Queue: 2 jobs
Job 1
Amino acid sequence: MQYMALIYDAPNGFERFEGDLMADYGKFTQEAVAAGVFKAGDALMPVSDASSVRVRGGKAAVTDGPFAETKETLGGYYLLECADLDEALKWAAKIPTAKIGTIEVRPVMVFDR
Amino acid sequence: MINAALARVFKLESGRVMAALVAQFRDFDLAEEAFQDAVTEAARTWPRAGTPSSGGAWLLAVARRRALDRLRKSARAKDRAALDNLALLADDAAPDEAGFAIPDERLRLIFTCCHPALAPEARVAMTLRTLCGLSARDIARAFLVPHATMNQRLTRAKAKIRHAGIPYRVPEADDIPARLDAVLSVIYLIFNAGYAPLTPALSAEALRLCAVLHRLQPLPETAGLWALMQLHSARDGARVSADNMLNSLKDQNRDLWDHTAIADGKNRLLRALGQRRPGPYQIQAAISALHCEAESWQATDWPQILGLYDALFALTPTPVVALNRAVAQAQAGAPVAALDVFKTLEAALAGYQPFYAARAELRARCGQAGARADFNRAIDMATSPQERAFLRRKLQELP
């Protein structure tokens, strides 16, 4: 099964991280690739760079900022191939930001062809 | 269920049969439907043909065939999961009903039903539905929620198990301690739901589940919880008086306690403690054992109970543990210091009825103002008529 690990953290949360966050992410990604679990993964620019768009009555309205104002915001993701939820949760717990933020794990929907 | 033999088999074996079905088909709904089919067929045929030598194995064999029928009916060429199941089952499609044992899959299933990725109330409901064979209606009644709410809770939990890929597996050895906590807390929640005067059958189910869990995997905390529940239950005979009033531990007639069960619970606890891996349930059982040993409320070994609460608080520093510790502190001879502790807990326990009941008693004992107001608050918060009557009587007894 594929699971999306959504990485949430407070803006500037990385300042609270003890150690080298980038190095830890490098190690994590390498480990996930070596285990054949890694499908994709990216970090996102902060919500101050976000734009939101809604189409209502055929008109697109663009606003500055994220979809919702929250303390913790989406900062990146991994797409992981795992046997079951237990395996996915184990990998999610190893994502460096889990120590200071929250990782939301969502199964990827499969459509019948 | 008219047939007494069927009722007995259902009570004893439904958990095992359901667990075997879910483990095999990995589909709670299919397992439930097939099991219901088998029970219906048993109700029809057993009175005429006689009760089979192993009723549980009979139910499982019939339910498996019914599940297969259902799968065949719904299988389309593209329905791979169903076809895989059919292939898997080709080998033992027609087992000799009396001749095969029911595989015990309950351990696997209890870890699935009590998975931390499910909401706590869903874990309780799934465990009672699947491992105890209770109907959604019975569970709804026990937890005082509408039937439709309970149905929805079960449906959601089953969907999440399926969609999120919650596995049917006993966790690996390293993960068991963390996962066991969730299982034990579900069992204790079920027990406490039954311990409230409404539904004693649930307490019996909790004891049964704990015994199964312990037989499959004898860990000290499992034994600790089992002993704790046994020691609590041993006092059942004295908890409610002839006129249906609750008796607090202080006022109970200790001759009415079940001293055989107390001895059994204490032995179990001592064996668990002997493994030198203490935990919250073992400590709570030790506290309960000290109460059970005492000849009266006054003669209770309060200093030792206080020491045990210190140990419990070190492991689980919750406001409720701090409250119980303060009550023990008052009994051990420091009621004024205990009242100071109550002050620090009030914000955290503002919605907790026992806080006000305990502070009322303590204030009355120390001659401090506010006992009457505290009892009135506790009465307002009480959830059962028995509790309310109990607190009213306490209020009336104030000088």
Job 2
Amino acid sequence: MRYIEPHAHMVSRVTDDYLAMVMAGCVAVCEPAFWAGFDRSSARGFYDYFCQLTDYEPRRAARYQLPHFCWLCINPKEAEDIALAREVLAMIPEFLTRENVLGIGEIGLNKNTRNEMQILEEHVRLAAGHDQLILVHTPHLEDKLKGTRLILDVLRSDKRIRPDRVIIDHVEEHTVRMVLDAGFWAGITLYPESKCTPARAVDIFETAGPDRLWLNCACDWGQSDPLAVPKAALEMRRRGFSEAVIDKLLFENPLSFLSQSTKFKVR
Amino acid sequence: MDRRQLLDLYFIDARSRLIDIAAFLDRLDRAGGDDDFRAEAFRRALDELDQPGPDRARRVLLAFSDPTPGPIAKAPGKSACGAYPPGPTS
């Protein structure tokens, strides 16, 4: 089988994970900018991180013949500090021309605060002004429903934003319909405890339909599984889905969305 | 897949998870002290399992969700706890 991993925080993973992913059929990996698990003390920390995402990490993946792409932003967990967030936003344009940058992400909300909303709106304006794809993080657990509604409001309020160029990630049973009905793409994240199991992800696929949907593992520094997507493929086989249907969800769908960036190429 | 095939595939796993939930509730009962909003939300969510309809997972998620409409003034922290605490925060 072949698959695209559209959301993985590889800077937090060991190199063995690249080998395991490639052996499982991964043909491209995409890495959104995210929270490091601690707050960075200055914008220079983000400058170094963006260099890591656009220079060092693609070279590490290339040792396993795996194309590596990334998305840039300041994560909503650090958006409460408006001054810092604006400093980081100001440095993003110089990185947008780098060859593995697909767009702006993962932007969004964490605790659904006014400051997070403000910085989300500024990220959306930045993406619209530079004609970039957008990858959106939706909040965790009890904050997801409200946060998803607020995010949809922000995106719909900027008339330059085309929903088919935006993926809204970490949807679950209570948010997937509102995302798809608004014309956006939806990502289902396979992650222990706080997001979906493979069985639930396949349930959502069965009920929401095959279009504008992808699966990802979002593996990071927490307990998470870089092979969650191929394990979901196994779950689909157990339910009797054909290889063609599995290929559409795990390869063709992310390829279709990501190829809206001319930089995106698979091995 | 028909119901029999789904039972073959998932029954043992679901049975195991159900017993884990029962044991969790027993553990709470054995412990001293008071419940908080998380236990209340958990029991509300359990009630949804008994209701008919095709969207129990969605309704359980809604039972744990913040129902308020607007953004809040300031983040109380970075983490989510899994249930919405009572009281005005908007």
